[in-house]
Specification:
The protein is an alpha+beta fold. 31% of the residues lie in helices and 18% in strands. It has one domain. Helix 2 (49-65) runs parallel beside helix 6.
Length: 248
């Protein structure tokens, strides 16, 4: 799928050393961490692509909102270390015994309509637990049996770039980046409302005619660092939450 050391970049970037700046900075000198996500893909019943993307995005939000990720929680130090460096996410796939072993490690499993994604607290870039390190990053494509329904305009939508061809894993990581950028843009009350509602969201491919407007309308935009699959600086996802400025 996607070993995804990409750099999501909100527009505009105001902090002098934002974790989403594309240029090298102090954060590149810090120890690098990665947020692991594992999607369950059984041979006989792979999940639909859109369901997997949406479930991955919700998994990132669940990890960000978990009480263990804040304050003195057991995952808080790892979350701080991860966010002090570049924000990286890697999606791997598992089935059968692999999935059961992954489920025994500390983390949270998030279930969509049929998709299952387990998210784990961040780990050092070169220090993965062996039961995760052995999982495959590439080799399985996902498809939607039928075109997804139109997105609910009253709920958050993560808009994918219609001009890019991304693997399922790459798109899952990018959707996770988009969800994280939306989360960071919200107030505490808005975050709590989203969390309490179960993090409803949609992932859809944008209409090509609207894409330029989406990327220039002040909404959070993910830009890829270009390490895998697509060119550096490519806009991959626009995060459109009802609490943020909307594109007409």
């Amino acid at each position: 799928m996607s070993n995804d050391p990409t750099t999501p970049v909100p527009a505009p970037v105001s902090a002098p050393d934002s974790p989403f700046r594309p240029e090298p900075g102090d954060r590149d000198l810090a120890p690098q961490f990665v947020l692991p996500l594992v999607v369950r893909i059984e041979r006989a019943a792979p999940p639909p692509r859109t369901d997997a993307l949406e479930t991955a995005a919700r998994a990132v939000l669940v990890m960000l909102a978990d009480e263990r990720s804040a304050g003195d929680g057991e995952w808080a130090r790892a979350m701080r270390d991860w966010q002090d460096a570049r924000i990286r996410k890697v999606v791997r796939r598992a089935r059968g015994a692999e999935w059961r072993r992954a489920g025994a490690l500390p983390g949270v499993t998030v279930t969509g309509r049929t998709a299952e994604v387990r998210v784990f607290p961040p780990v050092p870039l070169d220090g993965w637990p062996k039961d995760l390190a052995r999982l495959q990053v590439s080799g399985t494509d996902l498809a939607d049996p039928e075109p997804p329904l139109d997105a609910d305009p009253s709920a958050p939508v993560l808009w994918l770039n219609p001009g890019l061809d991304m693997s399922a894993g790459k798109a899952m990581a990018q959707a996770g980046h988009g969800a994280q950028l939306a989360w960071w843009e919200l107030s505490g009350a808005e975050r709590a409302a989203w969390r309490d509602a179960g993090f409803p969201l949609s992932v859809r491919t944008a209409d090509p005619a609207r894409w330029d407007g989406l990327t220039t309308g002040g909404l959070p935009v993910v830009r890829d660092a270009g390490f895998t699959e697509i060119a550096p600086g490519s806009c991959t996802v626009v995060a459109d939450h009802p609490a943020l400025a909307r594109i007409e």
